[in-house]
Amino acid sequence: MLNxxxxxxxxxxxxxxxxxxxxxxxxxSSYMSDLLQLSKWLKKQNKDLNNCxxxxxxxxxxxxxxQGNSTTSVNRALSSIKGFYNWLVYNxxxxxxxxxxxxxxxxxxxxxxxxxEEDVEKILNAPKLSINKGVRDKTILELLYATGLRISELTxxxxxxxxxTRGIVRVMGKGNKERIIPIGExxxxxxxxxxxxxxxxxxxxKNNNYIFLNRKGDQLSRKFCWSLITSYSKKVLPSKKISPHxxxxxxxxxxxxxxxxxxxxxxxxxxxxxxxxxxYTHVAKERLIxxxxxxxxxx
Length: 299
Hints:
The chain is mainly α. Helices cover about 55% and strands about 5% of the residues.
């Protein structure tokens, strides 16, 4: 006899994968959003999660494409749906998996936008250092470029994760995998200065151990950091489309350009698969090809 699918089934699934797979809250939130969108769409078709078919799921994914969602976004929704229905079958809520034969849309691998070391220098020098907020922002930018941290890793950084004496940061990345990253002399100087001389001006609650805080004394949000990077980038590089992930891209590409080996960069970035890191070698190779074409007499 099958179990009954109730209104809280999406919550139950998300709680389950969060505990069993150790997924980040951001990933689980994405799963939740995708599945709630599916549930809402099915209701408009007089269907529900319990009785939808492969055709229904294909139509839902097609509607996302029609709405202008990227292939990456549609593939993520498909992954959420497949994971959800696999879980329903495994836990005896359904006997047939309607998502089993669904295929992903073709996706071209998008190369990161190339930012030169000179471009990065402009971004890093954009904050106004005569105000406390500017020093905080400068420290954030320097740390992101020096370590290749993800935005979520930076906003979650606490004081006990930083060793100012040894110059390292300890972070918990995707899948609860810990890694240790050298900070570098320049970023370490700014971090040391901020923690000891400026952070106190943002503290309203002494029990708050997050390193970077907003004016209300709260932990910075991912959205705030994305806005921070985008606004400074637009100010100094108006002709380039810089994403909040660009400093992480630049960190990896510039390491490879200067002779770092791929495996070391993989460890620093926290990639579980080397193939994920290899995308940055394409950017580095592209730069070398352009350099050769420009400067070689027969280029």
